[in-house]
Amino acid sequence: MVQTDVSHRTINDMLRLPHQYSQSGDLIIGGLMSHLLSSFDHEDFKEHHAVDQILNVFVIPKNYQHVLALVFAVKEINKNPEVLPNVTLGFHICDSYFIEKMTYWATLELLSTWDRFLPNYKCNVQKNLLAVIGGLDFETSLSMASILDIYKTPQISYGSFAPVEDDQTQSTLFYRMIPNESCQYTGIIEILLHFGWTWVGFLAADNDSAQRFMQKLQPLLTQRGICLAFSERTKPVYLDKYYDMITKWLQIYQVILRSKASAVVVFGETELIFSLRALLAVGELENMTSTLLGKVWIMTAQLDFVAASHQMDWDMQVFHGSISFTVHSKDVQGFKTFLLAKNPFETNEDGFLEQFWTQTFKCYISDSMDGQITDPCTGGEKLNSLPSSSFEITMTGHSYSVYNAVYVVAYALHAIYRPTSKSKYTGLVKGGRLDLQNLQSWQLYHFLQRVSFNNSVGEEISFLKNRELEAGFDITNLVTFPNNSFMRIKVGRVDPGALPGQEFSIDKDKMVWHGSFHEVPPLSLCNRKCPSGSRKKKKEGEKPCCYDCAQCPQDKISYQEDMDDCDGCSEDQYPNKDQSQCIPKKISFLSIKESLGISLAFFSLFFTLLTAVILGIFIKHHHTPIVRANNKNLTYTLLTSLLLCFLCSLLFLTQPEKVTCFLRQVAFGVVFTVTVACVLAKTITVILAFMATKPGSRLQKWLGKRVASSIVFYCSLIQALICAIWLGTSPPFPDSDMHSEMGEIILECNEGSITMFYCVLGYMGFLAIVSFFVAFLARKLPDSFNEAKFITFSMLVFCSVWVSFVPVYLSTKGKYMVAVEIFSILVSSASLLGSIFGPKTYIILFHPNLNKKEHLIKRKY
User: Fold this and answer.
1) What is d(CA 553, CA 355) in angstroms, rounded to the nearest whole number?
2) Are residues 156 and 195 in the same domain?
3) Residue whose C-alpha is closest to residue 304's, from 143, 470, 178
4) Radius of gyration of the chain (CA)
């Protein structure tokens, strides 16, 4: 705590800030850092002793490195003869105390003379301030700019993020040593999508910057299917109102704790990390059995894992595995040595050192310090003994920006100094030296915009047109240790200047996750992902990220988790059992290799052989009356056509090809027509033979072979013409049935013209019906001579088979249609063979005594 005695101080002393660090030089670079956290007992400037209103000054140890980075850069430049030779740079550094009115105060302090708080006046001891480096956050930078713009003094912010399109940003003239904030939007969304986190929380400071950030980020999240599980705001830590915020912190703690969101995006400036650590600490005290270890904190680049002096001992394990966007940085040679050389007893103008050393190492340097600290400082304390949450020896991103900002000013001045400069400001160089008396701060703007150089670690530094540094962000993973130290592991990069598609990169194999997670990477979803084979089903009244899972329809699949809709397979594929992928369909056709094909082929060959045997028997006994009766040649023709009918069924048991499809129905139609025509000729012959036996009958002249042959020929010719028309107009062709059987592509013969197919069947049916009726009329002729009775029965079976064939054929699909047709061919042909030739063969083989003419002609008396 800063204690002052007003009675022994002048009014000017009261107006001077107690924490400053300065070094004289020909040209001065100002610095406004955010290193000390303080509060006021009342918010006004009515009293002259305003400095004495500062209460409870707490150090943020890590931010002291920003001060030292500026000092180190100035000293390094002064030792470098190639940059600003014969010119000595000085610096003047103040603190903003994280309070707006103190920012205004400190800015006016930088514009004042060395010995008095008199801005806008030139006194005895002149301070040639050319530029100010400062503004850890946008509000601080904006407050500084409102004053520095009046004086046309260039301002270079080392930590201020603000969207380019923001009106306030466009109206200010400060430069930023960091890239545009829009890169972070891309990075945050890509990280969430990379790990499949669609149900995320948002925690931010309750200020305008957070409001702007959320306004930009929210639509982008919605477009990419990411929802906010919660959005909480917390006020900055006001030390004098600390306990009033505990209730609010407990409420936020419970919201975060109960949420199913494992990923929490945290946005804010340095003050927010204090609030977050306090929030977690208060929550842990109130919920001893509950922790927030099951969360992945995604920190924006505005934040840093810092701790106030009173938080250095607080546990950091909750942040283990966190993901952070950081301003790109590299280790600068000599900086660690410079830090480790710091000693609280060295005599210099560092007004920050004593406060820093006292609160960081918990020791006192002088008796004026807080009496609660009992141990004196020895000077042997080393910065590298502090945990990383308190102070980092490696150069942080913000310190790297401060370091580069100093060099930006130096190189802009050097551009004025160069004799080769062709600008209108070359008159400022006289006798090989800068005319320091006439050099004005506003003259630096022209050169700042055009500055471009490689810094001491070889990286190019230059500004874009919008006065932002041309750079991206590093993505780091935080690994914490029990002593509150941590290590940053670079796992990715957001580079807006990279090739399209390569702007974002991350190596998940380098990621370290908290040990409390049951699976890595952890899930951050409103509900479990829908497995493959199902799709998302919207829940009424819920956010899009909360949904049910519905099984895909039978003919569709979802090959990934969480698909919005199921996809159909191509015609040559079908879903697997889990409906998670498409499997190629098997090629299938009614083959002689499968059981059904083997059975049909067996019966086809059996009846073919049987027909051949009967034909052989008839040929052998061709001289017998029973063979000679009713036209021997017609009998041979009928047996031959039946034999071909049985054989043509084998055409249906081969793979459908152009030739086989061409022959199948044509061969079947013509051969079967010949068979039915022979039956019709036989029936008519029976009738004619009986009627011709009557005395004086004129039908005897029709009993010759000519009539029977003519009937067979002309009936068959008509069918042949129908088939010719069919083949000439729309012939059968090979086709495939993709849908009749699941998992199979059935090869088949498309009939081409279905009308012609049924014409062939219809004509054949017409002949069969005529044969049936003719045979039916002749059924009562004398038994011994009558063959019409057997023809009647055979044609009854034949017609029954083919009448039932039509509906059965139409009701089946795929290869079973072919099986039905083969079955109909075999049954109808077998009925003809058995009914007409069975009795005759029986008599020939087993009752040759009946095979005599007197038994075949029986007269009625």
Assistant:
1) 71
2) no
3) 178
4) 51
DSSP letter for each residue of 702-725? G-SHHHHHHHHHHHHHHHHHHHHH
Give the other-Cβ count within 10 Å of 614's Cβ: 21
> Which H/E stretch holds residue 12?
helix 11-15
Minimal CA–CA distance to 45: which of 20, 14, 3, 8? 14
Q: Among residues 613, 610, 604, 390, which one has the least CA distance to residue 486? A: 390
Q: What residues pair up with 92 in beta bridges, in sequence order?
A: 22, 30
Examine residue 236 and say whether the peptide bond preceding it is cis (omega within 30 degrees of 0).
Answer: no
What angle, rounded to 10 degrees, do the helices at 138-148 and 208-223 form? 130
User: pLDDT > 90: what percent of the chain?
Assistant: 13
Tens of pLDDT, residue by residue over 432-483, are: 555 666 778 888 888 888 888 999 988 888 888 778 887 788 899 988 888 7
| Same domain, yes or no: 44 and 102 | yes
Question: What does the longest C-alpha to C-alpha distance in the chain come to?
Answer: 168
Structure tokens at 661: 């499809």
d(CA 277, CA 299): 13
Tokens coding 333: 């040679």
Number of compact structural domains in the chain:
4
Q: Are residues 215 and 94 in the same domain?
A: no
Q: Assess if residue 96 is contained within a domain.
A: yes
- Concatenating the DSSP letter of every residue in 239-282 gives GGGGGGGHHHHHHHHHHHHH-S--EEEEE--HHHHHHHHHHHHH
- Quick: pLDDT tens for 357-371: 888 888 888 765 555
CA nearest to 469, candidates 332, 298, 329? 329
pLDDT at residue 732, rounded to an integer:
87
Instruction: For residues 456 and 450, give the distance between their C-alpha atoms in angstroms, rounded to a whole number.
Output: 19
Residues 220 and 320 in one domain: yes
How many residues does this entry show for the chain?
A: 861
* 136-193 per-position pLDDT tens digit: 888 888 889 989 988 889 999 988 775 545 444 444 568 888 887 888 888 999 999 9
- For the purposes of burial, counting CB atoms within 10 Å of the CB of 856, is it exposed (0-12), middle (13-18) or buried (19 or more)? middle
pTM equals: 0.68
**Is 454 in the same domain as 546?**
no
Beta-carbon contacts of residue 402 (< 8 Å; ≥ 6 apart) = 31, 66, 69, 70, 73, 133, 158, 177
Q: What amino acid is encoded at 656 in this protein?
A: P
Q: Give per-residue pLDDT as tens, 261-283.
A: 889 998 877 777 777 777 776 65
Query: Domain with 218 in it: what CATH number?
Result: 3.40.50.2300
Do 694 and 779 lie in one domain? The reply is: yes
pLDDT tens by residue, 301-326: 877 766 555 566 667 778 888 898 88
Domain that holds residue 219: 182-300+305-328+471-510
pLDDT (tens digit per residue) in 752-784:
888 888 888 888 888 888 888 877 776 665 544
Q: Is 765 helix (H, G, I), strand (E, B) or coil?
A: helix
Q: Is the pLDDT of residue 235 over 60?
A: yes
**What CATH number has the domain bearing residue 781?**
1.20.1070.10
Please give the structure tokens belonging to residue 479.
């690994």
CA distance linking residue 796 with residue 776, whole number of Å: 10
Q: 144 with 134: CB under 8 angstroms?
A: yes
Decide the pairing of beta strands 129-134 and 27-33: parallel
pLDDT category of residue 76 using cuts at 50, 70 and 90: very high
User: Does residue 188 lie in a domain region?
Assistant: yes
**Burial zone of 14 (CB within 10 Å; 0-12 exposed, 13-18 middle, 19+ buried):** middle
Tell me the three-class secondary structure of 353-366, residue by residue. Answer: HHHHHHHHHCCECC
329-381 pLDDT, tens per residue? 888 999 999 999 888 887 678 888 888 888 888 888 876 555 567 788 888 88
Answer yes or no: do 744 and 803 share one domain.
yes
Tell me, yes or no, whether 342 lies in a domain.
no
CA angle 777, 611, 854 (to 5 degrees): 55
